[in-house]
Amino acid sequence: MKKVFGLGVFLIASVISGASQTSTTAAAPSTGVMKVGIVGLVHGHVESFLGGGNLNPAGSILKRPDTELVGIVEKDDALFEKYAQKYHLSPSIHFKSIAEMVSHVHPKAVLVFTAPDQHRRIVEESAALGVHVLMEKPLAFTYADALAMQRAAEKGHIHVLVDFETAWYTSNTEAVNLLQKGELGPIVKAVMRDGHEGPTKIHVQPEFLSWLTDPVQDGDGALTDFGCYGPNLMTWMMNGEAPISVTAVTKRLQPELYPKVSDEAEILLNYKHATAIVEGSWNWPFAVKQMDVYGVTGYAKTIDSDRLDVRKKGEKEAESIKGTALVAPYDDPLHYMEAVISGQIEEKADLSSLKNNVIVAEILDAARRSATSGKTIMLPLAK
User: Fold this and answer.
1) pTM of full prediction above 0.85
2) Where are the domains of the chain?
3) HSE (CB half, 13 Å, CA atoms) of 257?
4) Which stretches are annotated as coiled coil (predicted)?
């Protein structure tokens, strides 16, 4: 039987540059309200930002005191009207372009809820206007697009950040803290499992399903949708180090539902001193987001968003612990974005950072090439 106990009240400070995004003390809070706009309503995760949910731990942007929604860019009038009725949004905040929205209501940042193939255009337009960007994962499924966004961000002096639900899991943070404290020994292997029963079976919104299953807009189904979580976490644990090579296998286990894209992806990341196995799938029996981290002297296995099992060499059984609540601004995507924009913290190789996510895009690009060719792809890819 596993031992169960409450974890002591501690979070190690971010003493490893780019490794841990937790802190024992919160950054000084901002005294102002951040004006934000939304670009696109076709990504189902926008529901969590408007209505509140696990993707946005600090609550709905319509109710929180630190954020003001000043505009929404959406070309589909019917789609805007659907959300306007549900969340009582004024027609006055509806715009047809980023430039129009910025000229009228002046948001400091935009939150992007489009298909990934639109990210580059949106970042380039926003950078030219000096507006920061926070988008839903992944940054891109091609390395070329990721590099173009990096160049645009540098030229426009803006921050481009990427939101992952798993960035706000206390279990993931605790596992990495244990690793960085040396309690598991140097990392040897990590296994990440992410996904759910598939977008059709969980009944995502029709506008969401349309691009999730389109290889032009989203790359390759489950490979892009859930193959990005593991590389994001592994890049964080490896302090921004990219793998040496990427090998991937994809399958269509439900071709009747997903005839154009893969619903199963296995990705092997080969590092100089470690290995990562990424399992992204639309075929799990239920929603799964788990990470196993193996060091030389122990392991940490996350069970869900706040629980993990830890076992060290010489111990006969694992201990089940709960991660301590994260400290602002590392507890919520909008808290994090505001702190980065205001200069309270540096991105380093944090889970939402551009540096981390350019590497994730490179891995996704290499994985697609590997799955198509049946060959291992060496990194770095040509720029």
Assistant:
1) yes
2) 31-165, 169-331+352-378
3) 20
4) none
